[in-house]
Amino acid sequence: MAAPTTPSATAAPAYKCASSAQDIDDSSYDGPWPDNWKITVKTCAARSGGTVYAYAEAKWDGTAFREVDDVTIFDGAKLRLQIKQSRDGTDPVVIERDFTAIEDRLEDSTSSGNYNGHYRTPTISHRAGRGALADSTLFLDWHGDGRGYGRHDYTASPTV
Length: 160
Known about the structure:
The protein has 1 helix and 9 strands, in the order βββββαββββ. The chain has 160 residues and is mainly beta.
């Protein structure tokens, strides 16, 4: 009798990532305390056959002078993740999703009011030709500044 065979496991695609950081001013605060947030976003893409997978991960070091878990820091925040087809000139977007759950994470502090944290988007995927990449943009709408969403572009992943 032949030994039973087990199905071979498919290897997870290898992600290629790029990371960049920005110091972002809290435009709603004009007081004496330091108010910049250092936000780093790592954008990753992988390919398995004709499908490209992407995610973004944000990490931040925010202020330490606000109230604990202050839900009024932002009127809105979202991390936009895109899969693009790499071309000469502007890279066309194949798929795009906005992840608004980052706002709750940004407004969540330690018990001492320190706003350090992280957020990882769910993975998105789409069929794309050779030379695709992932790109991410952070949009922040500071509460009470009257400026709406400010756009912060981060480094795209290498092509996959």
